[in-house]
Amino acid sequence: MSSDNPTQSTQQCSAQTQFISSRTSLWLYLACCCLITSSVLFLDRPISTWMHHNIDASALFKPLSQMPLLFEVLSALVILSCIIPKLRRKTAHFALALIFTLISATIVRLGAKWIFGRTWPETWLHLDSGGNPSWITHGVEAFHPFMAGAAYNSFPSGHALFTFALVSVFWWRLPKLYPLWLAAMLGAIAGQLGQNYHFLGDLLAGATLGVLCAQISILLNKRVMTKYH
């Protein structure tokens, strides 16, 4: 028997849509976890070795590797625009989502790096006690859970995490510019990988966690804005 209450039907349809969306997201995140695991096991070391011996394009890849800085600046401009009353009405929703995203991405970045404790592809930290253990210099690639220190901060990539987190929020607010947002995401991956700053698995993990941070922040933002409006 069909319902004669249009409000009830609308609520049921909305709930079903939300369920499908959540289920799809869950499957996508599971697929990303499988991809990350496969990369760590089979792709990271050979790709890093190949990059080290065959790629020398700092002029091209280094600017792309700094993609998070660009979107951090853009995010700051959006947040600061709320100081102006006329702009606040237009950007408050956007700014709050960015604030939630920056906070969550920072917490996840610090926590995840400490939890996984992975060594780097290249040796870049030079101290009196020696450089950080790396795949290229020492043939070392391993996870050391809960190992503190910059020498064990490769996984996940903070650059990929922040880029994908912030760009996802910009994509949400300005969907018509999706080619630009997609290019920024891919550019960040290419820049970090091309410089051999991170293993591919680090970048995939950072990208996945970044999108998750943005998704959670957007949902939280919607609830807060709905409550106070």
- Compute the separation of the termini in Å: 37 Å
Helix-strand string: HHHHEEHHHH
State the helix count. 8
Give average pLDDT, whole number.
89
Brief characterization of the structure:
The chain is mostly helical.
How would you characterize the overall build of this protein?
With 229 residues, this protein is mostly helical. Helices cover 73% and strands 2% of the residues. The chain has helices at 6-54, 58-65, 67-80, 85-116, 135-138, 158-173, 178-194, 200-227; strands spanning 126-127, 130-131. Helix 4 (85-116) packs antiparallel against helix 6 (158-173) and helix 6 crosses helix 8 (200-227). The chain is elongated, with a radius of gyration of 21 Å.
Write the layout of secondary structure elements.
Layout: H1 6-54, H2 58-65, H3 67-80, H4 85-116, E1 126-127, E2 130-131, H5 135-138, H6 158-173, H7 178-194, H8 200-227
Antiparallel strand pairs: 1-2
Helix pairs in contact: 1-8, 2-7, 3-4, 3-6, 4-6, 4-8, 6-7, 6-8, 7-8
Distinctive features:
single chain, 229 residues, mainly alpha, two-stranded antiparallel sheet, 2 strands, 73% helix, elongated
